[in-house]
Write a structure and sequence with these properties.
It is built from 12 helices and 12 strands. With 384 residues, it is of the alpha+beta class.
């Protein structure tokens, strides 16, 4: 159990009007075969996960592609309605909430922490919501704090409050001058969610229900604070050499990630989310234009093709065209969501093992990114 806890800590610190296709798009049948092959190679190769699922929405219908298993024992395939931890894809949800509040006038992108959340460290006071959502705030990442790692290791079921998470870095200097560069930080989305609460007087969980789940018809998405997952769920695993893969689906509290990575959803619900979020169902116009002003920056883990960062959104330029979305990984799960600019086409990929540039075999992560890219190509596929 000690070895499993240490593995969990290491994994957590590695986090928690435009065309829809380009000249590189390939025919649908060919793209679907390529996706199936990529998923099979991912699962069957060394260091691969037990299973994977890709939900492709194209031509007004959604089709699931699977490889391997969503549960090892008793073995069964991964299903569109299986719950899972979405990890840092949750950051897109905090973007959905806060940017919808910008549209309604409850917040502005240039609102500062000092104006909306008095009582935070003085050095944070001039950091704006825009900088938080774009990971240009300079706030240190609480999940990389040694004290957080120690407290998490001591009790993986501990329920952290958002303010406790901020407390791990409240005494640290800013990593850089706000707005001067991009640096991914889990702290950013904790603060953004607290700003949403302060601006409305409503809990973040209620804001998610009112401004995201309900408008997009999402019935199987939630933000739990404990370790249990809604039934049914795809089980998440981590290697535990020399033994078999260890099931960590419900091995730790989700409160240590909260708005930066604590959401639980299903492949079917994530497909509804990414299409609505990217397609403008929750906000549009000047807010969406501001969101899509991109700068160099990779999602975590790195998504398919060339990555650039916007506000709680990444642009992935692949050989088949461009999709907008997010990625995420946490112990037991790795995720990718992407949609065409108008939301009419989308790809959702989930695997039940954490694999990124730091966790797992490099060759396995290369196969993960190829699977992400194949899913994006399948979503953008068009008849010639």
């Amino acid at each position: 159990m000690r070895r499993i806890r240490l593995a969990l800590v290491v994994a957590v610190l590695a986090l928690c009007a435009l065309p829809v296709a380009s000249a590189g798009a390939i025919p649908p049948a060919q793209a679907d075969r390529a996706l199936d092959n990529a998923l099979e190679r991912l699962v069957d190769g060394a260091g691969g996960p037990p299973g994977a699922i890709a939900m492709i929405h194209r031509g007004g219908r959604t089709v699931a592609h699977t490889a391997g298993v969503g549960v090892i024992r008793p073995a069964r395939v991964w299903r569109p309605g299986d719950h899972m931890r979405v990890a840092s894809v949750a950051k897109a949800f905090s973007g959905a909430v806060t940017l919808s509040l910008v549209r309604s006038g409850d917040l502005e992108l240039d609102d500062t922490i000092g104006d909306v959340l008095p009582g935070q460290p003085a050095s944070w006071s001039q950091i704006t919501l825009r900088q938080l959502l774009g990971h240009t705030s300079g706030l240190p990442d609480f999940s990389l704090s040694r004290a957080f790692a120690q407290d998490f290791t001591a009790n993986v079921m501990r329920r952290f409050t958002p303010q406790e998470l901020l407390g791990y870095v409240a005494g640290e200097p800013l990593a850089f001058t706000p707005g001067s560069r991009y640096e991914y930080s889990n702290t950013d989305n904790i603060v953004a969610a607290l700003m949403a609460e302060a601006a409305t007087g409503r809990s973040y969980d209620r804001l998610l229900r009112e401004r995201v789940y309900r408008p997009l018809g999402m019935r199987n998405t939630s933000l739990p604070l404990g370790s249990r997952l809604p039934r049914p769920f795809a089980h998440g695993y981590i290697p535990d050499p020399p033994g078999p893969l260890e099931d960590v689906s419900e091995a730790f509290s989700a409160s240590g990630a909260w708005a930066s990575g604590g959401i639980v959803s299903t492949p079917a619900d994530l497909t509804r989310f990414v299409r609505g979020y990217v397609g403008g169902r929750l906000f549009g116009g000047s807010v969406q234009r501001a969101q899509r002003r991109m700068r160099p920056g990779n999602s975590e883990p790195r998504g398919p093709g060339i990555n650039r960062a916007g506000l709680a959104l990444f642009r992935y330029r692949t050989r088949c065209g461009v999709v907008f979305g997010h990625t995420g990984n946490t112990p037991g799960y790795t995720q990718f969501i992407g949609a065409s600019a108008d939301g009419s086409r989308s790809a959702t990929v989930a695997i039940n093992q954490q694999i990124n540039a730091q966790v797992g075999e490099p060759a396995a992560f290369a196969r993960v990114r190829r699977a992400f890219a194949a899913a994006a190509c399948a979503a953008l596929a068009t008849r010639r």
